[in-house]
């Protein structure tokens, strides 16, 4: 499988923000991209395919490129190249995958991560003060904002 150039660039940039646990802490290996798909696209022990068109299932066109501290996946839908590959996140739990769009494109996601990474040493900080184009009503970004704003967590 040939990975999109922008995806390879994002993976190779390896922007990890360990102090904000919902954000990526580990990226796929571009030379062994299938490894990070275990548990999402296939069962790592039986190798059984886990993709399905059923509601709440992992879709065949979804590919994980990063995980956070909790092993929650960040992924793109390979059918959405024409849209610049929006970035999605899904938390583990409830036995179903709930897709949450967190960035309009791979480039947008990388800009957000770089801006937060550049301000990581300033924790705590208010995400509203950064020049980010994100929806703080989005459940994922609301959680990130809460961690960024929680001074007690970093004292």
What would your notes on this structure say?
By secondary structure, the protein is α+β, with helices and mostly antiparallel strands. It has one domain. The chain has three helices and five strands. Strands 1-2-3-4-5 form a five-stranded antiparallel β-sheet. A hairpin with a 4-residue loop joins strand 2 and strand 3. The protein is globular and about 45 Å long. The model has no long low-confidence stretch (mean pLDDT 92).
Number of strands: 5
Terminal CA distance reads 45 Å
Structural class by secondary-structure content? alpha+beta
Approximately how much helix is present in the residues? 10-25%
Beta-strand percentage range: 5-15%
Query: Major sheet: size, sense and barrel closure?
Result: 5 strands, antiparallel
What is the count of structural domains? 1
Q: Give the overall pLDDT as a whole number.
A: 92
Provide a quick synopsis of the model.
With 155 residues, the chain is of the alpha+beta class.
Features:
5 strands, globular, alpha+beta, 155 residues
Which helices and strands occur, and which strands form pairs?
Elements: H1 5-13, E1 24-27, E2 62-68, E3 73-77, E4 87-89, E5 100-103, H2 106-119, H3 139-149
Antiparallel strand pairs: 1-2, 2-3, 3-4, 4-5
